[in-house]
Amino acid sequence: MAAAPGVSYAKDKASPTPTPPAAMSTVGGALLGSSGTKVSLQAGAPALPKKITSRSWIVADAESGEVLASNNAHWKQPPASTLKMLFADTVLPKLSRTETHKVVPSDLNGMGEGSSLVGIKENLTYTVHDLWLGVFLRSGNDAVHVLSAMNGGVDKTVVEMQARAQELQADDTHIVSPDGYDMPGQVSSAYDLTLFARAGLQNADFREYCSTVSAKFPGDYKKTKAGKKVRDTFAIQNTDRLLSGDVNSGLSAYQGLAGVKNGYTSNAGNTFTGVAQRGGRTLLVTVMHPAAGADLGYKEAASLLDWGFAASGKVTPVGTLVPPKSALASASPNASASGTGTAHGGSTAGASAASASSSAGGAWTALGIAGGSVVVVGGVAFLVRRRWPLPK
C-alpha cells in the first residue's frame, strides 16, 4: 500500500496461512485474548461481511472506544508503515512545524533496502511541516529518519516510541525501526495500531497530515532565465487509496474517510488503519495482512466500515479501546484495563465490555475533537468532543 516492497529481514516461517496463538493479550477485554472472530449481534444487526481474508482486523467506535467486532485483534504481526502512526504520535508534538533542518548524510543512514522515499536530498533544508507531509503522504522512510535525527537519533526515537506504546497500553508492540520497515522482532497488532491512530488523532497537526490528499514538496534549486536561484517543488499524493481513490484500479475514495495510515512490506503484506465519520458516528478500522490481491486490504477495510456504520447500536461490544495509563489513573484510580463481552453467537449481555476502562476511556477518547461537552469522571473534568474534522 504505502511503502515500496523492500527486502524482508524477518521472513514468515509459518505455513502460507499461519495460525494465530490460542491465547493472546486480554487488554481491552477477555474476549479479545482468544483467536477467531468476536461479534455479538442484536436483533436487526447486519451480518459481518463474508470472505474477509485479513489475518486480523478490528472495528471500533472512535469516541466510546467500544469494539464492535474483531478477528484475532491481539495477534502480533509485522506492522509495516502503519507503525508510522506511533512515530508521529511520539515525535510530532516535540517539534514545531515551522522549524527547519538542513539534511546531512548521516541523517539518512540506516534506511532499509527498497524503502519508500519522498525524495529528500542531502544539503537541502526542509521544514518540519514538509517532512511530516512526506511521512504521511508518501510514507517516506527518508522523512522519518530526518525527523528522528532532529529528535536526537533513531535509537533515542525507538526508545521513546516503545515508552509511548507502553503508556497507551499497546502491549503487543515491539519497535526496532521507527519507519515500520521489516526488522527481526518488530511487531504490533490490529488492536495496538487502532490505539495509535486514536491517540494520534487527538493532535490537530496529526489530523491535518493524515487527511491531506495531495501537496507540494520542496525539490532542488534551479536558476531562472534572469539568473535568480529559486527552489522547485513537485507534487506528492497520499498513497492511501481509500482517501484519494485510484482511477486506475477503479477504487473510489471512501465517503467520510479522514485518514489514517496504510502500509506494505513483503513480510507484513498490506496493513491499513482508517478513521471515517458518517452522521453522528466515527469509526476506526484496522486490517492486517489480507490475501494477495489488488486493493484487497482497502476493499476489506471499506466493507468492515460499511458494516460498522450499519451495525452501530445493534451489537453488544466485545471489548474496548483502553485509554492511556495516565488518563486512566487520573480519571479513576480503581479502573481496570480489561473488559468483558460476548463471543460470536453468544447471548450474554455485554454492556460491561467497555466497563471500568471505558468509563475513563469514554471521557478521554475525544480530546481534540471539535465541539463537545464537559463531563466529570472520578472527580476529574474532561472535555468530550463529538465530531472529527473531515478533510476539506
What does this structure look like?
- Strand 8 (257-265) and strand 9 form a beta hairpin.
- With 392 residues, the chain is of the alpha+beta class.
- It has helices at 84-91, 128-138, 141-150, 154-167, 190-200, 204-210, 241-244, 296-311, 325-331, 355-364, and strands at residues 37-38, 56-61, 66-71, 100-102, 125-127, 214-223, 229-237, 257-265, 269-278, 281-288, 319-320, 370-377, 380-387.
Keywords:
25% helix, seven-stranded antiparallel sheet, alpha+beta, 392 residues
What overall geometry do the principal axes of the alpha carbons give? globular
N→C terminal distance: 23 Å
Q: Report the mean per-residue pLDDT as an integer.
A: 83
Order of helices and strands: EEEHEEHHHHHEEHEEEHEHHEE
Percent range for β-strand residues: 15-25%
**Count of alpha/pi helices:** 10
Main sheet overview: 7 strands, antiparallel
Number of DSSP strand runs: 13
Helix content: 25-40%
* Uncertain residue ranges: 1-16, 335-392
Structural class: alpha+beta
**If you compute it from the alpha carbons, what radius of gyration comes out, rounded to the nearest whole angstrom?**
21 Å
